[in-house]
Amino acid sequence: MDKIRDVDYTVMTQENIPEEVLREVDKRKEKEFRMTFRDGENLYICLGYGEKDRGGYSISVLDLYEAKNGLYVQTELVVPKEEKPVDRVVPTYPYIVIKTEYQEKPVVFL
User: How far apart are the first and last CA of the chain?
Assistant: First the structure.
């Protein structure tokens, strides 16, 4: 898609995610998910990578831009470097919530 402009955004910390968004993320986090949530002023773009067998994962936003027919977002799951084995496996659920200005355009996940 032809990029019109890059879109400004903020990656939300867990403490700053609106309660209704956090509830929906919690419902979906065990499996991969993609969803959006809109309020009057903001658009929240949420992506989760499902259950992982240990902590240390992170998610990078590679691109977020506006095109004629939508907002395009691309993320990447960053896998932790191999460390010494752990005795107890504690599953984690890496996800990201991106806040940007509300727009009527659909969100396309790349």
Answer: 11
Predicted TM-score (pTM) of this structure: 0.91
By CB atoms closer than 10 A (0-12, 13-18, 19+), residue 41 is exposed
Residue pointed to by tokens 């990447």? 76
Portion of the chain with pLDDT greater than 90, in percent: 80
Q: What are phi and psi of 14, to 5 degrees?
A: -55, -40
Q: Structure tokens of 36?
A: 């959006």
Q: What's at 101, amino acid-wise?
A: E
Name residue 10's amino acid.
Answer: T
Query: What does the pLDDT look like over 48-100, one tens digit per residue?
Result: 999 998 888 999 999 999 999 999 999 999 998 876 666 567 889 999 999 99
Checking DSSP bridges between strand 107-109 and strand 70-78, what pairing results, if any? parallel
Torsions phi, psi for 22 (to 5 deg): -60, -40
Residue 92 CB: number of other CB atoms within 10 A? 14
